[in-house]
Amino acid sequence: MAWGTPSRERRVLKAGHSSIAVTLPKPWAEAMNLRPGDLIVFDQNDDGALYLRPAPVAGAAGATSPYLVQAQSFETPGVLERLVVGAYRVGHDAIEIRSETPIPPERVEELLRTARRLIGVSVVAQEPNRLVLQNFIDPSKYGLPQLVQRMKMILIAFLEESETLLDRRTRSRRLTSLDEESERVLALLVRQLFLASRDWSLARRIGCPDPRQLLEWRVVVHSLQELGRLLSEITELLNASRERPAADTAALRARLGDVKVGLKAVVDTLIRPSLGEACEAYAQVAALGFSARESADKMGVTARRAGLHAATVATQRSAACLSTLAEVAVDRAVSLGNETVVVAPA
Asked: What is the 3-state secondary structure of the chain?
């Protein structure tokens, strides 16, 4: 929503005998639907910055009102699941599914399975024509840095599982559970971002002291989601592969190790910004992209049939995701101060 571009400066006015006041920008007040007499909530940051937002209206529909899904058809599998996940991700605590006809057993199982794959969600009511899911987590207990660290560990587990498949040539027993855990954490990360965008006080408590950083966090979450998809794809390819040339297998193993090292470096500097370490991580993942492309170009027909070539291409695309994360890390480090990094000549 565009609020216009009001002046950033406001003159402090005298109000009464001992009070002072500042006027609100008209575009912002109109966008927030504010009227004379409405209440404003103030939040103060540690550096003295003051944030304000309209106070919740008593009795208004909000987080306590269930998100209602009035289902009329159950012919397409997955639609109810996506609706529930979407409602969870945008911040609804209660989700109610109603139908004029009994909900088919396969759709009930789909909803129960969906609840199990969302952190903090349980089924609190189940009737033939009605099912209610309720979220019980306190959003302030799930910091963005901690969730990103948790996602990093899941991605490392994907990489280690792929390395195991290269060594033993056995089918993965962990792929399904890793996929589900990745989806759980990513859904919660998106939910936290939505909630933080509506509550600046919550944003600060979960690791985003400046609301403008929510844009950076959104890029981080999107890149982690794409990285999870790619690493899952690599594991799937190695699950299905049989004949593997030794040289190509060694090359892929090296690239997987590089991705693991780059992932750790990038996430560490995202969580604890340092301009020097961020620049080093950026150069590291850029080199990974080049080496992965060279490895893929050298692979022959046998490697392509075995899925090694496609897996190596996926590591190259993983390097691109890491590069995006490294760019955010550099931006974040630059925004924190005037630190200077001497860049050595090539």
From this structure: CCCCCCCCCCCCEEECCCEEECCCCHHHHHHCCCCCCCCEEEEECCCCCEEEEECCCCCCCCCCCCEEEEECCCCCCCHHHHHHHHHHHCCCCEEEEEECCCCCHHHHHHHHHHHHCCCCEEEEEEECCEEEEEECCCHHHCCHHHHHHHHHHHHHHHHHHHHHHHHHCCCCCCHHHHHHHHHHHHHHHHHHHHHHHHCHHHHHHCCCCCCCHHHHHHHHHHHHHHHHHHHHHHHHHHHHCCCCCHHHHHHHHHHHHHHHHHHHHHHHHHHCCCHHHHHHHHHHHHHHHHHHHHHHHHCCHHHHHCCHHHHHHHHHHHHHHHHHHHHHHHHHHHHCCCCCCCCCCC
Mean pLDDT for the stretch of residues 82-91: 94
The total number of structural domains that make up the chain: 3
Domain of 22, in residue numbers: 13-54
Output the pTM of the full model. 0.79
Same domain assignment for residues 215 and 274 = yes
